[in-house]
Every structure is written in C-alpha cells, then in structure tokens.
C-alpha cells in the first residue's frame, strides 16, 4: 500500500510539477512586481522553491529557461507598477489602521528611494516590501522611465537567476538522498502555500480598510 501511494505521489509530481511551477512562478512574480497585492506574496521563497521542484525532476534546462522567463516577467511587472504610480500616484497604497498597507511603510520606501536613487531601484529586488512599492513610488515621483527600466532590469538580473539556480543546485546536492530530497520539495511547497495563504488573508484585511487621506501622491520629488 505504501509503495503504491509513493508511486501515485511521484507520478502526480512528475506529470504536474513542472507545468504548475511555470504557471505559478510567472503569474506570482508578475503580480508581486506590478500590483500592491505583491506585498503579501512570498516571491523569494517561490523562486528558490521553484528551483528545488525542478531539481526533483532533473530539469536543468527548464531551470535556466525559467530564469530568463521570470526575469522578463519581473521587468514587465515593474513597468506596469511604474505606470500605475505615474498615473494614479501612491495614495491608494496606504490604508488607515492597516498592518502593512500603511503610511509608515510607504514613507519608509519613499525615503529609501530618495536617499539611494538609482541604486535603490537595483537593491529593491532583495527587499520584499520595497520590491513592490518601488515601481509605484518611482512612477509617482516621475523618475526617468529609462533610468528606472535600467535599474529594475539590473536588479532583476541579480535577483531571479540567483534564487532559482540556488534552489536548483542546492537540491541537486541532495539527489543522492531521495528521502531528504522529497522532504525538501514538500517543505518548499508548504512554505509557499502557507506564505501565500497568510499573505492573501492579510491583504484582505488591509485592503478593506479606508484609504488614508493623509497619504500624498508622491509627486514631490524624483529619486
């Protein structure tokens, strides 16, 4: 019975795994980089976990191709976020009494971009909450679109492949210990699932609160 169950489980993973990884990774990375809901999505653990799952299938070529595809999607997502900020400002990003979508976090992100400018756009990829707010703030502050595109592309190039390939090759070291590899795969899936569920729950709590009328539109200065 146990052997049969293992066969069904591995069969399901082999059939659906890579397809689900591609769908989930590209859609979640786009949302994280383009929309406010991205503040609540586990982007870093998702990319690392994607590498782990692909390693469980020995899909090295897919891992490298995914790096390229996810990089393009991340850049496109940031461009969408930039233009949302350019035409709507940042007012809707702050909610009264919210735990995450609040004026304090928005001000911290704006201050980070003001102080660091171009380098902040590059570094923002590695700071989860700033990763989502940076395009919005840069657009609202009328940062040069070409400069923003260069910064976000460079940041994405350092971010996406690093995490995907770290997950892939780290998991590859464990391939000689099948049970440990299985544990790592399911732990990665578990972390992503729990992180996403908690993020969606938190997002729903924050987004239902009224807009913070004290939030400015971010047009005062460009980083």
Could you explain how this protein is built, in words?
The structure is a single chain. The protein is mainly α and about 220 residues long. It has helices at about 1-35, 45-55, 60-90, 105-115, 120-125, 130-140, 145-175, 180-205. The chain has one domain (about 55-223). Helices cover about 75% and strands about 0% of the residues. The chain is globular. About 40% of the residues are buried.
Secondary-structure map:
Elements: H1 2-34, H2 43-56, H3 60-88, H4 103-116, H5 118-123, H6 128-140, H7 145-173, H8 178-207
Descriptive terms for the model:
disordered C terminus; 8 helices; globular; 223 residues; mainly alpha
Question: What's the short story on this structure?
Answer:
With 223 residues, this protein is mostly helical. It has helices spanning 2-34, 43-56, 60-88, 103-116, 118-123, 128-140, 145-173, 178-207. It has one domain.
């Amino acid at each position: 019975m146990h052997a049969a169950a293992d066969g069904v489980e591995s069969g399901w993973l082999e059939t659906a795994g890579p397809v689900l990884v591609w769908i989930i990774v590209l859609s979640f990375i786009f949302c994280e980089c383009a929309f406010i809901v991205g503040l609540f999505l586990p982007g870093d653990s998702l990319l690392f976990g994607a590498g782990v799952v692909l390693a469980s299938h020995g899909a090295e070529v897919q891992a490298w191709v995914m790096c390229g595809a996810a990089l393009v999607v991340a850049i496109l997502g940031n461009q969408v976020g930039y233009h949302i900020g350019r035409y709507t400002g940042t007012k809707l990003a702050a909610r009264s009494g919210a735990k995450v979508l609040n004026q304090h976090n928005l001000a911290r992100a704006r201050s980070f971009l003001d102080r660091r400018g171009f380098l902040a756009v590059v570094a923002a990829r590695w700071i989860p909450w700033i990763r989502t707010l940076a395009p919005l703030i840069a657009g609202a502050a009328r940062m040069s679109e070409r400069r923003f595109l260069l910064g976000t592309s460079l940041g994405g190039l350092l971010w996406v492949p690093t995490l995907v390939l770290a997950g892939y090759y780290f998991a590859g070291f464990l391939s000689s210990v099948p049970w440990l590899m299985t544990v790592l795969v399911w732990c990665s899936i578990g972390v992503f699932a729990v992180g996403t569920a908690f993020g969606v729950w938190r997002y729903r709590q924050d987004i239902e609160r009224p807009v913070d009328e004290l939030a400015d539109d971010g047009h005062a200065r460009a980083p």
